[in-house]
Amino acid sequence: SQADDAKQWYQRRVRGKTKEFEERFSPLVLTTTGGVGPEMDKAMKRAAKLLEDHHGEMYNEALTAIRRRLRFCLLISTLRSLRGCRTKYSPSGLNEIDFNL
Fold it and tell me: Is the pTM of this model over 0.85?
């Protein structure tokens, strides 16, 4: 099935990256179609749980906001790599984000 193929693909990518970097980190695998590997899924869920515990945000809203923010960050990064940056980049802090959109 497609789900099994995707899981196998993620596992191959994780094994390849782990071997390449001698197991010094956990690779956060993303696909261009929006899929995430198991380590990335765990990392996003952990971040959402922390936001829920420390800031009183609802878990599902925090997870949605994290995914949305990641998509835009990747889009901006891609656009900058293709056309170059024309202005000075200054990232906004996590404290300024309103998760209850």
Answer: no
